[in-house]
Design goal:
heterodimer, A: mainly alpha, two-stranded antiparallel ribbon, 16 helices, 8 strands, 72% helix, B: mainly alpha, two-stranded antiparallel sheet, 14 helices, 2 strands
C-alpha cells in the first residue's frame, strides 16, 4: 500500500463524516432564523417551542462539525504537504478569510444563540441567530470557492512548481464557484428539510406534539416543494459548467468512452476500466448529450481521449452520479405528492405518506455524499485540475504513522459520530419538543442569572 | 514586504497566544476536574466554560489557516514532520469537544463517565501541545524538507518535560480562572489547587529556562550573548516578580488578579520561547523570510486581518462580558 492511497482513504473518510455536519447545520440555522423571526413577529409560543427544540439538535450537530473540521484543517498539512506547499498562498489565503470572516462570527455568536436566551433581550438574541446564519453561509462560500478553484483553477501563475496568486477576483470567483455554491447551499437546505419533515411525520404518526409537528411538517414540505425543483435546475447548470470546464469528469459521469455526438444516457451500465467500455448498458438515446449540452446532437468528449493514467476511477463517478440524480427525482416525487395532498387538504391524514416521509430522513445526506464523491473522484487523478497530480501531493511521512492515524481516526470517528452522535440525536428526538410551561412564561429564567444580580 | 512578513508573524504569534490562554483555561478546567467531587460543583465548572469553548478553539483554527496562507513552506514542513503528535493532538481536541457536548445530553448516572473522558482528553491534549512546543523549540535539522520528511525524534526528554509542564500551566490557568467564576467552598478549593499548581509551574519554568539554551547551540549563543545579557535579564526578573505577586494574590484570596498574573507568566514564557526561535519559523532550518508567501497574497490577507482582528477581539471580549460573573446555576439547552 502506498502512502498516497492511505492518505486518500484517510481524507475521504474524515471528509465524508465532516461534510454531513455542516450540511445539516447550515440548513438548521437557516430554519431557526426563519422560525425565530416568525416568533418575534407573531409572538406565537409555538414558534418559540420550534426554535428551542431544533436549537438542541443544532447545538449537537454544530459541535460535531467544529471538531471534525479541525482535523480536516491540520490534515491538509500533515498528509498533503506537496499540495499545501504548491497552493498555500492561494488556498491558505482563502482559508484565512474563511476563519476571519465566517468562523469567528459563528463561534462568537453561537454562545449567545445557544445559552444567551436569558442574558440578552429577544431582539439581540435574534441578531445573534442571524449572524450565525450569515457566518455559516459565508463559510460555505469560502470553502466552495477553495474547492472550486481546485476544479477550475484561475487567476494564478505557475512559478517553480508553485501557484502564485495573480488576480484574487479570478481566484475567488473562479469559473465554477457560483453554480457549485448554490448547489451546495440548496443541498444543505433540502437535506435538513427532509430531516425535519421526517421527525414531524413521525410525531404525527405517533399522535404526539401535534400542533408542533404539523407546523414543521407543513412548513418544510412547502419549502421543499420550491427548493427541490430549483435544485434540479441549479444541478443542471452545474452539469453544463462541468462539461464546459472538466469534460473528462462529464465523460466519467456519463460513461462516455469515445468522443461522440448525441451520446445516450445510460440508465444502468458497468463501466469497465480495463476493457475501456461499458457492459450491460441500458440506454436512452441522445440523453447524455442533451443533459450536458442542452442539444440532442451535442458533442461529448470521450474518456479515451486522455491516457489511462489521466482517467478518474470511472465506476465511482458513474454510480455516485446516478444515485444522486435518482435521489433527486425521488425527492421531486415526494414533494409533488405532498402538493397534491395539500390541495386535497389531506396532508396530515394519509398514513402511507407519513410513513414514506418518516423513512426519507437520510435521503439528503446520501445525495450530498454521492454528489461530493462525483465531484471529487471525478477530478482525479488531479488535485488541482490539469495542473497538480494527487499522488505527487502526498507527504512522504512514515507509512506506519499514517496507518496508525488512519486506524485511530476510524475507531474514534466510528464510536463518536457513528454511535454516540446518533444515540444523543435520537434521545433529543424521542424526548420531543415539550418544555416546562413556566419556562415559557419567563423564558429566560432557567439559565444562569448574573446580569440582574450585578445590577443589584 | 518586510513589514508584511513581520505583520503576519506577529498575527500568528498573537493567535497562538490567544488560543493558549483561552483554551488553556478550558483544558485546565478539565485537568482539575477529578479534584472536584460534588456533582453540583462539576456542573458549575462545565457551565463556566461552555459558552465560549468553541470560540476559543477558533483561534487555533485561525493560527493554522494563517500559517497555511502566509507561510506555506513552514506549514508544509512542520506539519508532516510532527505528523503523529499533531494528529493525536487534534484527535484529543475532537474527543474533548464531543465529550463536552455528550455530557450535556447524557443521563445523570453516565455523566461521570463522560467527565472522566473529558479529563483524559484535556490532559492528553495539553501534554501533546507541550510536546509539540518542546520539539519546535529544540528545532529541526537543516535537512528538513516539505516532501522528504526525515524520521524525526519528537519524543525526547526535553519535549516530555515541556509536555508535562504545559499540563500544570493549563491547570494553573484553569484554577485561577475558576476562582473568578465560583464562590464559597468550591472557590476555596480552587485557591488551594492554584497554590499547588503555581509552585510546580515555577519549578518547571526554572528548569526549562536553564535547559533550553543547552538543547541547541543556536539558542545558546542567543541567550549567552554578553552584549544582550542586561536586556535579556529583564525577562526572568519580571517573570520572578509576577510569580511572587501571583502567589501573594492567591494567598490573600484576590478573585481576579491571580488569573491575569498567570496569563502574564504565560506571556513571559511565550516571549522566551519566541526569542529562542526568532527569526526561524521552522527553528534553525527555515526563517520567516524564506517561508513567506509572495507579496500579493500577504497583502490580500493582511487587508482582511487588519479589518477583522480588532472586530474579533472586540466581540470575543463582548461575548465574555455577556457571560461574565459568578456561575450560580447550571447551563443547559
Amino acid at each position: 500500500m502506498d502512502i498516497a492511497i492511505l492518505s486518500r482513504i484517510q481524507f475521504a473518510f474524515t471528509v465524508s463524516f465532516h461534510i454531513l455536519f455542516p450540511a445539516f447545520s447550515i440548513g438548521l440555522v437557516t430554519f431557526l432564523t426563519i422560525m425565530e423571526g416568525c416568533w418575534l413577529k407573531t409572538k406565537n409560543p409555538l414558534y418559540y417551542r420550534i426554535c428551542k427544540f431544533w436549537t438542541k439538535v443544532f447545538a449537537l450537530t454544530f459541535g460535531m462539525g467544529v471538531v471534525s473540521g479541525i482535523v480536516m484543517e491540520f490534515q491538509f498539512g500533515t498528509n498533503w504537504s506537496g499540495f499545501t506547499y504548491a497552493v498555500g498562498n492561494v488556498l491558505g489565503s482563502l482559508f484565512t478569510y474563511e476563519v476571519l470572516t465566517a468562523f469567528f462570527i459563528e463561534a462568537g455568536f453561537l454562545g449567545v444563540m445557544l445559552f444567551g436566551w436569558d442574558k440578552v433581550g429577544p431582539k439581540l438574541h435574534y441578531f445573534a441567530t442571524c449572524l450565525v446564519f450569515v457566518g455559516v453561509t459565508l463559510s460555505a462560500f469560502w470553502i466552495l470557492s477553495a474547492n472550486s478553484w481546485m476544479q477550475t483553477p484561475d487567476g494564478v501563475v505557475l512559478k517553480d512548481g508553485r501557484f502564485i496568486a495573480d488576480d484574487w477576483l479570478h481566484i475567488i470567483f473562479n469559473p465554477s464557484v457560483i453554480p457549485r455554491y448554490f448547489h451546495m447551499l440548496l443541498a444543505a437546505y433540502i437535506t435538513t428539510g427532509f430531516v425535519i419533515t421526517s421527525v414531524s411525520a413521525y410525531y404525527i404518526l405517533k399522535q404526539v406534539h401535534l400542533d408542533f409537528a404539523k407546523k414543521c411538517f407543513s412548513f418544510t414540505l412547502a419549502a421543499l416543494t420550491i427548493l427541490v425543483p430549483v435544485q434540479i435546475y441549479v444541478g443542471d447548470s452545474v452539469g453544463l459548467e462541468v462539461h464546459r470546464n472538466q469534460p473528462i469528469k462529464t465523460a466519467a459521469m456519463e460513461g462516455v468512452w469515445n468522443t461522440q455526438r448525441g451520446a445516450p444516457f445510460l440508465i444502468f451500465a458497468y463501466p469497465d476500466m480495463t476493457l475501456q467500455k461499458n457492459l450491460f448498458a441500458l440506454k436512452i438515446p441522445k440523453g447524455a448529450a442533451f443533459i450536458n449540452t442542452h442539444n440532442w446532437d451535442g458533442k461529448l468528449v470521450g474518456l479515451k481521449s486522455v491516457p489511462r493514467a489521466d482517467q478518474p476511477f470511472v465506476p465511482f463517478v458513474f454510480y455516485a452520479f446516478r444515485i444522486m440524480v435518482g435521489l433527486g427525482l425521488l425527492m421531486l416525487l415526494v414533494v409533488f405528492t405532498s402538493l397534491w395532498l395539500r390541495f386535497r387538504k389531506k396532508l396530515y391524514d394519509k398514513r402511507w405518506f407519513l410513513h414514506i416521509c418518516t423513512w426519507i430522513a437520510p435521503i439528503g445526506f446520501i445525495a450530498v455524499w454521492t454528489g461530493w464523491v462525483t465531484a471529487e473522484t471525478g477530478r482525479q487523478p488531479w488535485v488541482v485540475y490539469n495542473h497538480l497530480r494527487t499522488d505527487y501531493s502526498a507527504s512522504h511521512v512514515n507509512l506506519y504513522h499514517v496507518i496508525t492515524s488512519l486506524a485511530l481516526i476510524v475507531i474514534v470517528y466510528g464510536i463518536i459520530f457513528g454511535y454516540f452522535y446518533f444515540k444523543f440525536l435520537f434521545k433529543i428526538l424521542r424526548a420531543g419538543p415539550e418544555i416546562k410551561l413556566e419556562s415559557y412564561d419567563q423564558p429566560f429564567t432557567y439559565l444562569v442569572g448574573s446580569r440582574t444580580e450585578q445590577k443589584k | 514586504m518586510t513589514y508584511l512578513i513581520m505583520g503576519w508573524g506577529a498575527i500568528i504569534a498573537l493567535c497562538i497566544l490567544m488560543y493558549v490562554i483561552l483554551d488553556g483555561f478550558t483544558l485546565g478546567a478539565g485537568i482539575l476536574l477529578p479534584f472536584i467531587r460534588k456533582d453540583e460543583d462539576r456542573d458549575i465548572v462545565f457551565s463556566s466554560v461552555l459558552p465560549n469553548w468553541d470560540g476559543n478553539q477558533t483561534w487555533l483554527v485561525l493560527s493554522g489557516a494563517s500559517l497555511y496562507g502566509a507561510f506555506p513552506t513552514a506549514f508544509s514542513t512542520l506539519l508532516p514532520t510532527l505528523y503523529l503528535p499533531l494528529i493525536l493532538m487534534v484527535v484529543c481536541l475532537l474527543f474533548r469537544g464531543v465529550t463536552f457536548e455528550f455530557r450535556l445530553k447524557a443521563k445523570a448516572h453516565n455523566k461521570r463517565k463522560w467527565e472522566a473522558l473529558f479529563t483524559f482528553g484535556s490532559i492528553a491534549a495539553a501534554f501533546l501541545q507541550g510536546l509539540l512546543l518542546g520539539t519546535f523549540v529544540k528545532g529541526f535539522g537543516s535537512d528538513i524538507h516539505y516532501l522528504v520528511v526525515p524520521a524525526y525524534k519528537w519524543l525526547t526528554p526535553f519535549s516530555i518535560t515541556t509536555g508535562v509542564s504545559v499540563i500544570f500551566g493549563y491547570a494553573l490557568l484553569g484554577a485561577t480562572r475558576l476562582i473568578g467564576k465560583t464562590t464559597g467552598e468550591l472557590q476555596e478549593k480552587y485557591y488551594k489547587l492554584a497554590k499547588v499548581a503555581i509552585v510546580i509551574v515555577a519549578l518547571f519554568m526554572v528548569a526549562i529556562s536553564i535547559w533550553t539554551p543547552f538543547v541547541d547551540p543556536t539558542i545558546n549563543s542567543k541567550w549567552f550573548n554578553p552584549a544582550r545579557m542586561p536586556y535579556l535579564a529583564i525577562l526572568p526578573i519580571v517573570t520572578g516578580i509576577v510569580f511572587i505577586w501571583c502567589w501573594i494574590a492567591i494567598d490573600r484570596r484576590h478573585e481576579y488578579w491571580p488569573f491575569w498574573l498567570s496569563v502574564t507568566m504565560f506571556i513571559c514564557a511565550y516571549i522566551g520561547f519566541g526569542y529562542s526561535s526568532w527569526p526561524y519559523i521552522v527553528p534553525h532550518a527555515i526563517t520567516i523570510w524564506q517561508a513567506a508567501s509572495p507579496r500579493y497574497a500577504l497583502a490580500f490577507t493582511m487587508v482582511g486581518a487588519v479589518i477583522m482582528i480588532p472586530v474579533l477581539m472586540f466581540y470575543t471580549f463582548s461575548s465574555y462580558r455577556i457571560f461574565k460573573g459568578k456561575i450560580k446555576n447550571v447551563i443547559e439547552y
